Amino acid sequence: MYNVGKAGLTFWSPTMNLLRDPRWGRTLETPGEDPYLIGKYASGYVRGLQQLDDKERLKVAACCKHYTAYDVDNWKGVERYKFNAIVTKQDMEDTFQPAFKSCVTEGNVASVMCSYNQVNGTPTCADKNLLSGVLRDQWKLNGYIVSDCDSVDVIFNAQRYTKTPEEAAAVTINAGLDLDCGVFLANHTLKAIQTGLVKEVEIDRAVTQNFIVLMRLGFFDGDPRKQRYGSLGPKDVCTPAHEELAREAARQGIVLLKNDNKFLPLSTKTIKSVAVIGPQANVTHDMIGNYEGIPCSYITPLQGLSEHVNTIYAKGCASVLCPPENLHLDDAKNAAAQADITILIVGANRSVEEESRDRVSLLLPGQQATLVSEVANASKGPVVLVIMSAGGFDISFAKSNDKISSILWIGYPGQHGGAALADVIFGSYNPSGRLPITWYPESFSENILMTDMRMRPDPSTGYPGRTYRFYTGTPIYPFGYGLSYTTFKYSRLKAPRLVNIPTGTACLFKHCETISATGSYCNDLSFQVRVRVQNTGTRPGAKSVLLYFTPPHVHNAPRKQLISFEKVYLEPWEAKHVVFKPCLLQSLCACGTCAKLNQEVNKNSTAQHDHLFPKLIAFRFTPKTIFIPKFSTIFNQKSSSRSVLSQEPLLFKKIQTFNVVQGGVM
Fold this sequence. Notes:
Number of strands: 23
Structural class: alpha/beta
Low-confidence stretches: 505-514, 593-666
Keywords: Glycosidase, Hydrolase, Signal
Largest sheet: 6 strands, mixed
Organism: Rhynchospora pubera
Radius of gyration: 27 Å
Mean pLDDT: 86
Strand content: 15-25%
Number of helices: 19
Shape: globular
GO cellular component, one term: apoplast
Distance between the termini: 33 Å
Oligomer: single chain
Protein name: Beta-xylosidase 1
GO molecular function, one term: alpha-L-arabinofuranosidase activity
């Protein structure tokens, strides 16, 4: 589109904030709630946009946003422009930062966007530690840092963080900001320089970072029509291959949540008519979410289903908000009473969840639950419930309703989402999607403040924690959940019996030696887990095998943590080997252990903490059940003049265990 003047070569995408709270309006922009998954998504997304054969050149410039701890937009009057996210160091290190680190270090992203909010009292776009310290010095960002649009203006006019606009310009530029999405810096930077608040060297740095990206994009290489991609245009977008890709992406994203008695897939040989009911049954634009492109064409759910069988259509609710006055039960119930099968399509759209619009409830909007229950009771045959949304809902009423045989979640499935839904319902495609988020009960939204940033549970107050890594409550559907039309069997073929991890030479304090979780040191300590996966059913299907790490129950570590995943496609009775090569040290740090240990060391550098850094750590694999290998930590207590480990602290007389378990499919 750049070639025809419809777009630039910089795309401020992907949004990669972790979904901490299910009510966040921007759920439809995010890849989920797991930091490892988000990091892999973001780095892959960036490489897909940017990469050329020459690694210093760019096809387009991507941007990882919104940095950092940003996931409150407008909840009960609390707006993102003034929100101060109070975040513990441990939560910052193992929850909010890892995906951004992956985006920079693995994806080599060309820019990072700082967010509107403050973190622990400092606006992110004015935080020198976050920008210059972490992004530049630690992660070696090869690109520019940009503000979210008008963020610098927000720092002065909304947050009142500085007394003058020149000070707001200075504090952001001096922190490491290179580009303002807005006009605030254009209006106030010169005076900030003239009054000595900003040195010209900082301006030179910012301009240089921006121009380097422009050079990598080829802005100074002459006529763009003569460059590598100069001949591309609209004709290359809406090709049959690309439209099929849109349909395939939608198919892979559909999650089968319930399928009593293997009701799905339907057969067109036995089903003669289907009632298609619901406010989302015949939508177009709602299917493509927000920050959307221009679709080549639409296939709505009603259109897709009508390609297979005769349909009877009733909207049921005039809008997705479904207030009582817009609920039309009679037409919907009549349609359900006539048809062999009823397919209800409900959920949300941007009037419910989007930027600047957080939810206050996890129930279906308005009278949608009434529509579902009444239609299910009136239906002649079984009911399939389809949820179109980004965020999850408390649909426990439908989960337990025997008349509702199957439930599907289709997200916002894109331009050909209706065709993809029909492919799944009528069996030409076997669903393989798995939930990237936890679906919570309504009690979560009733009792937990969205502004409470804590990830970890607090038993003393009944605070349940957040996401599958910490949540102690019972979810409606858990992270990683999803059914298939076939069945799979796992068996563990290979895993090391023992992994020795020698300590490094650097000491965090004088009485200990430490281990490193970075660079080649980690690569040398990666180990291999080999799993055999077999399709034991009669239908071909795909399975995403998830490898979880369950750390020792110390330092508020997660209940479990995803450390690797792999998707395999299997014909009936076919088996394949899946090989994982995780680094256990990185897994420990992903679980917050490193961050917590560093905090304790910094707070109190005394010998009483020496037990946190054993001279040698060995991870022993002991088979427990099929594909539930068990890791045991064993501490070697060699005597040393530099360590008190020779005293054999009581902690080491007990062997702590943690498991790697096979979970759901992603």
